[in-house]
Automatic annotation (TrEMBL):
Residues annotated as binding L-homoserine: E190
Species this chain originates from: Neisseria leonii
Entry keyword NADP: yes
Signal peptide segment: none
Domain spans labelled ACT: 355-430
Biological or metabolic pathway of the protein: Amino-acid biosynthesis; L-methionine biosynthesis via de novo pathway; L-homoserine from L-aspartate: step 3/3; Amino-acid biosynthesis; L-threonine biosynthesis; L-threonine from L-aspartate: step 3/5
Broadest EC class assigned to this enzyme: oxidoreductase
GO BP term, pick one: threonine biosynthetic process
Taxonomic classification: Bacteria, Pseudomonadati, Pseudomonadota, Betaproteobacteria, Neisseriales
Residues that bind NADPH: K105
GO MF terms, alphabetically ordered: homoserine dehydrogenase activity; NADP binding
Keyword line: Amino-acid biosynthesis, Methionine biosynthesis, NADP, Oxidoreductase, Threonine biosynthesis
UniProt name for this protein: Homoserine dehydrogenase
């Protein structure tokens, strides 16, 4: 069989890794496919790097459009990132009848619906395993492995940089800024690290998984984002004393009222497997009606793990490119006619339990006042402890609540903050039991 010709856009962390995987494992990949996969063209601004990585017959160009227009290219791997030039390149590759593999979650979270519609019109495949949780085959699991189920919820540690920072802060007491620099040097962080630490990157990924889980168009605008940059190390410590770890979770859940879609720091009981996922590792927990709970764990970033997912997509396309269109797995896991817009819940309507830290005067009646304001909003307290006295007159009170609707929690917090005995804003962190 004739070789499949790949055009690679960008030789950065993932692009370079992809060329390396295709080179190092060429024999095994050919053995799986019964045909050769050839890097036929590469777009890069670093011709010297490309020469060192690629064969003598690879076209090397600094014009990425030359690759997407090249007649001999079967599959384009978009590994630029971002949404500007990458979107034009992907759409042009599709218009030219090329299959596309991308690791670009931002592009898919924001423009996925348009890209999938164009790809469907042109009968080409768009694969994106590397876009969510790097090397973990979670897209394959959601689209294929769990196809017998009604998926109920997904909760994942899906930003390696944030997890690395939270782990180092907890284990070594390192400063936030130092750990962020280390994550950038290791190639985990996005070009703009605010995307990692403010929850955007995790938001892109949970938005994509939500669409696949519930068969609904991608809707990043509906995703609530709260990152880790304002997290106080005191709360990491108090949470640990209470038997919890704080993780940046992407969460999506189907409820009777609609779909929850959110990213925020979350207290998770330390006995859960996911609470023990540390460093740059990712984990995704899926709750589904027939199988129950499944957990997927692995490296969420880095050159070779991410390239492993890119190359798996290339292999998938090679296997299906000559098969009938009806034999392909739909982009959003459901037949296009079955993909339906669903009600997306605003944060005020989500249900969660909460960790609160209140700084108040250390005098009789203060705790009672706070507890009765919570009771007024029908919020039940699971645990309440006084952590210590600050400046001789103020107490730090930590409260864990049972499940409640977020607008009730916010109303109670506003009333607590209005008490004369409470001087600082209340710290609120959501908690998830993740117990099925
Ligand atoms: P890098 O910044 O390391 O590489 C991107 C490369 O794309 C650049 O090195 C450059 O290639 C090329 N490029 C980007 N913008 C331009 C431009 N305007 N003009 C010309 N060339 C451009 O990014 P990553 O490899 O880390 O990320 C690539 C994609 O993979 C992103 O979508 C990212 O979100 C995703 N991803 C990354 C992971 C990781 O661990 N890093 C994990 C999972 C997904 P060259 O240098 O060859 O000119
Ligand atoms: N910056 C991302 C992370 C890379 O830290 O998880 C993987 O998408």
């Amino acid at each position: 069989m004739k070789p499949v010709n790949i055009g690679i856009l960008g030789l950065g962390t993932v692009g370079g890794g992809t060329v390396e995987v295709l080179r190092r494992n060429a024999a095994e990949i050919s053995r799986r496919l019964g045909r050769e996969v050839k890097v036929a063209a590469v777009s890069t601004r670093d011709a010297q790097k490309a020469r060192a990585l690629c064969g003598a017959d690879t076209l090397i160009t600094d014009d990425p459009f030359e690759v997407v227009r090249h007649e001999g290219i079967d599959i384009v791997a978009e590994l630029f990132g971002g949404t500007e030039i990458a979107k034009d390149l992907v759409l042009e590759a599709i218009e030219n009848g090329k299959h596309v593999v991308t690791a670009n979650k931002k592009l898919l979270a924001e423009y996925g619906n348009e890209i999938f519609a164009r790809a469907e019109a042109k009968n080409v495949m768009v694969q994106f395993e590397a876009a969510v949780a790097g090397g973990i085959p979670i897209i394959k699991a959601l689209r294929e492995g769990l196809a017998a189920n009604n998926i109920r919820s997904i909760a994942g540690i899906i930003n390696g940089t944030s997890n690395f920072i939270l782990s180092e802060m907890r284990e070594k007491g390192s400063a936030f800024a130092d750990v962020l620099k280390e994550a950038q040097a290791l190639g985990y962080a996005e070009a703009d690290p605010t995307f990692d630490i403010e929850g955007h990157d995790a938001g892109h990924k949970i938005t994509i998984m939500s669409a696949l889980a519930f068969g609904t168009p991608v809707n990043f605008a509906a995703c609530y984002l709260e990152g880790i940059s304002r997290l106080d190390s005191r709360d990491i410590k108090y949470a640990e004393e209470l038997g919890y770890r704080i993780k940046l979770l992407g969460i999506t859940r189907k409820t009777e009222k609609g779909i929850e879609l959110r990213v925020h720091p979350t207290l998770v009981p330390e006995c859960r497997l996911i609470a023990n996922v540390n460093g740059v590792m990712n984990a995704v927990r899926v709750q589904a009606d027939m199988v129950g709970e499944t957990l997927y764990y692995g490296p969420g970033a880095g050159a070779l793990p991410t390239a492993s997912a890119v190359v798996a997509d290339i292999v998938d396309i090679c296997r299906l490119m000559d098969a009938g269109v009806q034999n392909r797995v739909p982009y959003l896991a459901f037949h296009p006619q079955g993909v339906q817009p669903l009600t997306m819940l605003p944060m005020d309507e989500i249900t969660s339990s909460y960790y609160l830290r209140v700084q108040a005067e250390d005098k009789p009646g203060v705790l009672g006042n706070i507890a009765s304001l919570l009771a007024k909003q029908e919020i039940s307290i699971e645990a309440l402890i006084q952590k210590g006295v600050i400046d001789g007159s103020k107490a730090e009170i930590v409260i864990l609540t049972h499940s409640t609707v977020e607008k009730q929690m916010k109303a109670a917090i506003a009333e607590v903050e209005a008490l004369a005995s409470v001087s600082e804003p209340v710290v609120m962190i959501r908690m998830e039991a993740l117990n099925g």
